[in-house]
Design a protein that fits this description.
The chain has 7 helices and no strands. The chain is mainly alpha-helical. It folds into 2 domains: about 80 residues, Rna Polymerase Sigma Factor, Chain: A (Orthogonal Bundle), CATH 1.10.1740; about 80 residues, Arc Repressor Mutant, subunit A (Orthogonal Bundle), CATH 1.10.10. It is globular.
Length: about 160
């Protein structure tokens, strides 16, 4: 078990070595520097709280990336859809609005039907455009696992969205 001083020193070292790249990673996922800074702060807090459980089975960098990824994805899940916040009043605009809302709801429901791993891979690869290698590094899995999960996620989405029509 680490002493409090050792824990603090290790944590300070983690921040110095990885803060900038984790911020860039969060920005890539969230597409907002402001949101990325919030996610980074939350990720660093989670890392601090979880540091005693870090067992060193994987690299420290991949452990931090996983925490930052999960924090960013959690933030996305909590977001409200800004384009749907204002209710239109024009009848034509109203029809378009409800069509878009229905489409968004269908996609969200379909993604929600995927396993968590499939959701993560789908969001990182197809929504945020990370390569299979980058996704594998972030999730601390193999490229083959990423590709397999992505195939299952896409098939699941096709099935879910096809059933909803």
């Amino acid at each position: 078990m680490m002493s409090q001083a050792e824990r603090h020193d290790l944590y300070a070292e983690l921040i110095e070595l990885h803060r900038d790249e984790l911020r860039a990673h969060c920005t890539r996922i969230l597409r907002s520097q402001h949101d990325a800074e919030d996610a980074l702060q939350e990720a660093l807090l989670r890392a601090w709280r979880s540091l005693p459980q870090f067992e060193g089975r994987g690299s420290l960098r991949s452990w931090l990336y996983r925490i930052a990824t999960n924090t960013s994805l959690d933030q996305i899940r909590r977001r409200r859809e800004p384009a749907l916040a204002r209710e239109p009043t024009d009848p034509v605009e109203l029809d378009d609005h409800f069509e878009r809302r229905e489409s968004v709801n269908r996609v969200v429901a379909a993604v929600g039907a995927l396993t968590r791993g499939q959701q993560e891979v789908f969001v990182l690869r197809d929504v945020y455009g990370l390569s299979a290698r980058e996704t594998a590094d972030v999730l601390d899995v193999t490229v083959a696992s990423v590709n397999s999960s992505l195939q299952r996620a896409r098939a699941g989405l096709r099935g879910e969205l096809g059933e909803m029509e």
